[in-house]
Structure formats: structure tokens, C-alpha cells
């Protein structure tokens, strides 16, 4: 079945970086864009950016520009999200999500990863 | 940036009752790029509605979406125990993509 499986929980110090992986299976990896979304404790969902698994091109939310990098490895059908210069406010569950319509990132998110808890604490 | 405002923040209802959730956009958007998600504690969000009114695969027909322009509605015709959750609206037609703040549907 179609699924996205994310890497495990992380605990980081302020100023450090974290890299979360998202492994896709059950579909043609290069056909569907993958987005990253986070949810901080007690907050709503926040869009971080998107990657095209085919060409590797990306688009990031302005508030994360300069701190976030999304990459992909087509040989393992895995996308990665790296967030640098971590602050306590980055404590959140990070999700990857696949779009439902091929070849467009302007599409609803039909499959989500299980989430990765990232805790930033001194 | 399109701001999505959901109301109410919390909805207290009993199983079997009807739930009506609202989402208002700060500017008009195409209904083709509007959806709703459900999230229960410890789980990832689940797509319920896309294109404002189309149910996603496997979603029961007690869930329905409607609206256009700046005002959208999610209706749950008869609440089942598993429907008590947080619901988010989402616009995915304009960057940055944005979500509403959520409506919690709780058991009364």
C-alpha cells in the first residue's frame, strides 16, 4: 500500500541542526510532490515547503528560508528535511505528506507520514 | 498570504448530533484548491475533503464539504464516536500554502 515512513524522534540543543527522513513506498516516487508540515504543541498546522522528487526543485515558506533544506534520493525513494539553527520554538511534530495529483504541488495531501517529534531543549 | 479563520474554536456535541464547522478565507480562492483534514491525538492528519466538496477515498458519506469564494463549511451529519477530533481547513492554491487554526469537536 502507499505509505510514507519517517525517521524517529530527535532531541537537539538550540543552534543545532536536525535532518528528518521520509521513505516512500507503494507508488512511483518521482510522480508526486512531497510537502513538509509541522505542528507545534498546542498550535495548528504550518506549511514549511515542498520538493519535487523528480527534479529535486524546491519551494520554501519565507519564514524558513535560509534555515530549511529539502533534498531527495531517488535510489531509495526518500526525501529529507533539514532544519538548522534550531530554537526552542522549533519543537514540533514534523510531517511529510504526498500530494494526490501527479505532477503538481497545488494539490491536497492524500497520504501523510506518521510524524517525527523534534524537541529542542537547552 | 491567505489567512484561514476557523470557527468555532471548540464544538461540544453528543454522538448522533450534526456538526457544522466553518472556515473563512481572507481573500477569495478557487474551491478547486480547498480541503479539510481530521486529526486525532497522536495520529497524522487525514484528508477528508478536497476540491471543497469531494470526499477522499474511504471517507464516509456523513462527511460533506461545501462553499466557495471566502466561506467554506464542513458538515458531519451524525457524529460517530471516532469523529471527535480536531479539524483543519487548508488552501493549496496559493503559496504559501496555509491552514486554519483548527476546530476541536469534543464530546458534550
Rounded to an integer in angstroms, the radius of gyration calculated over CA atoms of chain B is 13 Å
Helix/strand-derived category of chain A reads mainly beta
What is the tally of helical segments of chain A? 0
Report the average pLDDT across residues of chain A.
97
Approximate strand percentage of chain A: over 45%
User: Which residues of chain A sit in consecutive blocks of at least 5 with pLDDT less than 50?
Assistant: none
Sketch the topology of chain A as an H/E string, one letter per element: EEEEEEEEEEE
Gross morphology of chain B: globular
SSE order of chain B, one letter for each helix or strand: EEEEEEEEEE
Distance between the termini of chain A: 40 Å
Assembly context of the chains:
heterodimer
Helix content of chain B: under 10%
The tally of beta strands of chain A, per DSSP, is 11
Q: What is the tally of helical segments of chain B?
A: 0
Structural class of the helix and strand makeup of chain B? mainly beta
| Secondary structure tally: strands of chain B | 10
| Relative strand content of chain B | over 45%
Largest interface: A-B, 21 and 23 residues
Q: Report how far the terminal alpha carbons of chain B are from each other.
A: 35 Å
Largest sheet of chain B: 7 strands, mixed
Amino acid at each position: 500500500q502507499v505509505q510514507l515512513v519517517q525517521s524517529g524522534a530527535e532531541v537537539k540543543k538550540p543552534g543545532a541542526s536536525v535532518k528528518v527522513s521520509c521513505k516512500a513506498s507503494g507508488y512511483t516516487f518521482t510522480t508526486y510532490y512531497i510537502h513538509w508540515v509541522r505542528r507545534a504543541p498546542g498550535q495548528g498546522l504550518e506549511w514549511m515547503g515542498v520538493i519535487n522528487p523528480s527534479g529535486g526543485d524546491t519551494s520554501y515558506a519565507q519564514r524558513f528560508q535560509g534555515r530549511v533544506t529539502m533534498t531527495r534520493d531517488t535510489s531509495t525513494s526518500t526525501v529529507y528535511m533539514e532544519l538548522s539553527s534550531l530554537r526552542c520554538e522549533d519543537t514540533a511534530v514534523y510531517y511529510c505528506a504526498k500530494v494526490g495529483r501527479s505532477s503538481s504541488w497545488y494539490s491536497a495531501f492524500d497520504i501523510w507520514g506518521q510524524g517525527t517529534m523534534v524537541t529542542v531543549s537547552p | 498570504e491567505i489567512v484561514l479563520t476557523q470557527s468555532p474554536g471548540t464544538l461540544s456535541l453528543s454522538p448522533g448530533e450534526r456538526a457544522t464547522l466553518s472556515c473563512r478565507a481572507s481573500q477569495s480562492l478557487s474551491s478547486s484548491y480547498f480541503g479539510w483534514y481530521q486529526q486525532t491525538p497522536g495520529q497524522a492528519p487525514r484528508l477528508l475533503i478536497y476540491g471543497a466538496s469531494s470526499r477522499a477515498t474511504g471517507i464516509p458519506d456523513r462527511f460533506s464539504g461545501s462553499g466557495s469564494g471566502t466561506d467554506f463549511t464542513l458538515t458531519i451529519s451524525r457524529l460517530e464516536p471516532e469523529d471527535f477530533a480536531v479539524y483543519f481547513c487548508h488552501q493549496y492554491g496559493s503559496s504559501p500554502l496555509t491552514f486554519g487554526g483548527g476546530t476541536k469537536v469534543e464530546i458534550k
